[in-house]
Amino acid sequence: MTAADGFVTDARRVADAILYEGYLLYPYRGSSGKNQSRFQFGVLMPPAYRGVDASERSVSQTECLLEAPEDAGVTVIARFLHLQRRQVEAADGAGGFRPVASVQVDDAEVTTWDEAAEREHRAAVPLAALLAGGVDAAFEVPGGESVETLTGSAGRAAGRLVRRQATLTAVIRLRAERLPGPYGALRLRLTIENRTSPDGPLRRREDGLRCALIAAHALIHVPGGRFLSLTDPPEWAAPYAEACTNIGTWPVLAGPEDCRELVLSSPIILYDHPRIAAESAGDLFDATEIDEILTLRTLALTDDERREARATDPRAAELLDRLDGLPPEMLERMHGAIRYLGPPSGTGTGPPGGGVPVAGPAQTGRPAAATPDRSVPWWDPG
After folding, report:
1. How far is Cα 297 from Cα 286, in angstroms, rounded to an integer?
2. Three-state SS for 240?
């Protein structure tokens, strides 16, 4: 694997967390109110849905700054979830099936639920083509239907699962322009547009979600190029960074700290070079929560609540299995880590003015604790 592949692999871990952020929230049951209105981030609805709710968008736009030669190549990886309706049908005793809310298969319950399938489309184009007028890369995600028979231990069919997906059509648009001045930088524009035409009327949000690009985000990779941070641009680039127009997304530098050739454009505002905390034992679908608290609350679910969560979604069942087998030392790791503490820099006894010593760069091994100035109240932000 090349270094460039490693950068993308590293960034995908964060992108996967974005993909499933809010997918299913504690207590992970379909009957929970918070799981009745789902998929809150990065939803690109079909254009026809704007007649139902004009606040929902069908297009996202990313603008970022880049330094790269004209012979460079640009690769965009657009990623999103595709809603999959999972309908439970019970055997009617006459050889047929009828739709139901749930069915019991031995000791397990299976419920009707909206799952999601991961989708990804890649577009690789030369930068020269983007400077010459741009490139539009249209793509289609086929829909379909699949049937899974639910068979009990006695070999009798208790029911079946019918999964249905709508066909999606979308387009990735890429443009680039040189900025004025001696630096030769570029403004790169990425637009992702949902062009799906629904096969029926859209009356509710659930109808629109069938044809939506859910949790849509993108990775933009320019090997040999150098993206400029919009959060902390160099002084000369600050006016151009401020002029960038981002709609429904926010681009940040991605990959390890020394990587400048990769950007993650996310519907959730992040900092540059975001990373998954080493203390995190796995996805909880709610990165705004504290892992330790959410884990403890999940472990405290009753047997009935666990049974319903398992029946709701396979990912909820995997989450419960993972937490049930969580070693105590992994739970202790979630208690917290202060990453900025380290040995005081320099050889002096402290900073000028007698304030709290400034921690130096992170070191390997156990960090040295800084000695606080007792004359300052511990609760004073200053």
Report:
1. 13
2. helix
> What is the C-alpha to C-alpha distance for residues 144 and 117, in angstroms, rounded to an integer?
12
d(CA 340, CA 291): 20
Q: Name the strand (E) or helix (H) holding 328.
A: helix 328-333
Q: Which token pair is 326?
A: 């969580």
- What 8-state DSSP symbol labels residue 51? G
Question: What residues pair up with 217 in beta bridges, in sequence order?
Answer: 79
Closest CA to 164 of 49, 87, 79: 87
Say how far residue 363 (Cα) sits from the centre of its chain.
30
Going by C-alpha positions, the residue among 102, 86, 99 that lies closest to residue 146 is: 86
Residue 18, SS3?
A: helix
* Measured distance CA(305)–CA(165) in Å, rounded: 29
Along the 382 residues of the chain, how does pLDDT read in single tens digits? Answer: 566 677 888 899 999 999 999 888 888 888 888 888 777 789 999 999 988 888 899 999 999 999 999 899 999 999 999 999 999 999 887 878 999 999 988 888 889 999 999 999 999 999 999 999 999 999 999 999 999 999 888 888 888 999 999 999 999 999 999 998 888 899 999 999 999 999 888 999 999 999 999 999 999 999 999 999 999 999 999 999 999 999 999 999 999 999 999 999 999 999 999 988 777 767 888 876 778 888 888 988 999 999 999 999 999 999 999 888 888 877 777 776 666 665 554 444 433 333 333 333 333 343 444 455 556 565 666 5
- Map out the domains of the chain as residue ranges: 3-312
Structure tokens given for 182: 């001696």
